[in-house]
Amino acid sequence: MNTELVPIKLDKITQTRSYSMLVLKAKNASRFAIYADPQVGRVIQMYLTGALKERPLTHDLISNLFKGLDVKFKQVVINDMKDTIYFAKLFVEQQIGEITKIIEIDARPSDCLAFALLNNVPLYCTSSLLSKTVPITED
Fold first, then answer.
1. Structural domains of the chain in order of their starting residue, each with its CATH number
2. What is the pLDDT of residues 40-59, one digit of tens each?
3. Nearest-CA neighbor of 41 among 105, 107, 106, 117?
């Protein structure tokens, strides 16, 4: 199984009342969509546009907790798909004395994308998963 990491980025968000479509684009121009809860899509749009929030949102709270515990966001990897449901890992780093621990956290890709945008960390997809996605062509 090829586990090479391919850099990806958010290409487009489409919102409806019942879902958000997050179109991701790989370096080789392959595009695929992940569907998410519309609320998470709105949060991602807020992070993209720099919209002001009156109070911290859930992703802000978790990011602030991690920062307070000196845990650094390192990267996001979308790594699997089962029955059209995508899976992702959020990688964080924690320094305990002279020991550096890398922790993998299983999370929804949409939440991982929000954390990646909020914390300016790279977003990847495994090449084996990319070969299984349903490509999206230009509209």
1. 5-130 (3.10.690.10)
2. 999 999 999 988 889 999 99
3. 117
